[in-house]
Amino acid sequence: MRLAHGNIYTDKRGRRYRRISLEQRSQLRKDYMSNVPKWRHPLIGYLVAIPATVIVSLCTIYVTKMFGQFFFPSTFSIIVIVVAALFWGAGPAIWSILLNAAVLYYIFILPLSSYDYSNWRDALQLLPFIGSGLVIALITAQRERARFQAMATELELQSYAQELEETNRRLEDANQMKDRFLSIASHELKTPVTTIRGQAQLMLRRISRHKDLEHMDGVATTLERINDQTGRLTTLIDELLDVSSIRTGKAALNRRLCNVTALCREVVEDQRLLTERMVLLDAPPEPVTLKLDVDRFSQVMTNLVSNAIKYSPDDTPVEVSIKPGARCVLFSVRDHGRGIAKDQQERVFETFYRTPDAQTSSKRGLGLGLAITKDIVERHNGRIWCESELKKGSTFYVELPVSPSP
């Protein structure tokens, strides 16, 4: 039993098929016939069956006269049916069965009946021959049906492929529209936010010059909050702009030789001043030089160090180390926070992903920092990964290839 649902029907085995219209079925038949050589057209088979039956009948009569008695007179007739079925299909095969059965009855059965047309029992001798021919025709029909079904399946697959292609095109258009909106919105937001923050900082500087004005204490506190929140907004907008650049492929790198030891030292000092946290740097005394985008790599180290500070206790240090090697330089940033579960260590680099602990914590964010960091590292032909143990902290590693000597 087949259950229909729209243009899809399901058979008793649960297999789903697309319903083919009469026009599609007719077109399939035309396509099937167009792929068949002209000499294998069924009409040719109907015509060929007539002379083939005559030739076979003459051969059967000749063999009978030569040997005096032929116990299997339908042998040559079976060959005609097989050839007709093989080259022209089930229709010509059935037509060959009718022709050869008539000839065999007329040549071999009718003389034995002494022209007694009422003696129909002798005609039953043709039943094995007719049955064998029908089996051949049935097998041929099943084969033709399988070929036709294969073409119908191919048509269905093409239809699905077209639908998937159209769906993918729409999704790609929607994704591009989203990226354009993200880029435009971020640019439009950045200008007023920067202006607000600049005005707040200007007012704070003016107030600091007039400390004798007691009524300005509340205003100063409000302006400080405005400055902090606009700073946070600026950071989020910069991250959104970075994501937009990454997705549109516009985040080009400006590589040049850089002393990464001095760069990491600057990042560490900046984070110490901003957060008043203990950040330790373990670096070799001699300079380590790599060819990279200074601003982007500074962003990488800043993201890693700020994340380590954000998600670790205030009384624990953050440890940054640089280990140069023959082929690559290994950077690591270690914290002593809650740690990250193993099933989440790969996902933390996904865009907009935050671990459950990060979501429930008071630390805010969009889950963009590590995704941007990973993209920058991979654009430098490097790799980044995380090793963590719950309640013991996390360590993020960045490995960059050593630049060849100029």
Report the sheet with the most strands, covering strand number, pairing sense and barrel closure.
5 strands, mixed
Order of helices and strands: EEEHHHHHHEHEEHEEHHEE
Report the total helices. 10
Shape: rod-shaped
Structural class: alpha+beta
Mean pLDDT: 78
The proportion of strand residues reads 5-15%
State the share of residues found in helices, binned by percent: 55-70%
Enumerate the strands of the largest sheet in spatial order, edge to edge or round the barrel: 5-7-8-10-9
**Runs with pLDDT <50, length 5+?**
1-6
CA distance, first residue to last residue: 76 Å
* Rg, alpha carbons: 42 Å
* Number of separate structural domains: 2
Give the total of beta strands.
10
Describe the model:
The longest helix has 83 residues, at 127-209. A hairpin with a 3-residue loop joins strand 9 and strand 10 (393-401). This protein is an alpha+beta fold. It folds into two domains: 36-251, no CATH class; 255-401, Heat Shock Protein 90. The radius of gyration is 42 Å and the shape is rod-shaped. The protein contains ten helices and ten strands. The protein starts with a strand and ends in a 5-residue tail after the last strand. Helix 1 crosses helix 5 and helix 4 packs antiparallel against helix 5. The strands form three sheets. The chain has a five-stranded mixed sheet with strand order 5-7-8-10-9, with helices on one face. Residues 1-6 have low confidence and may be disordered.
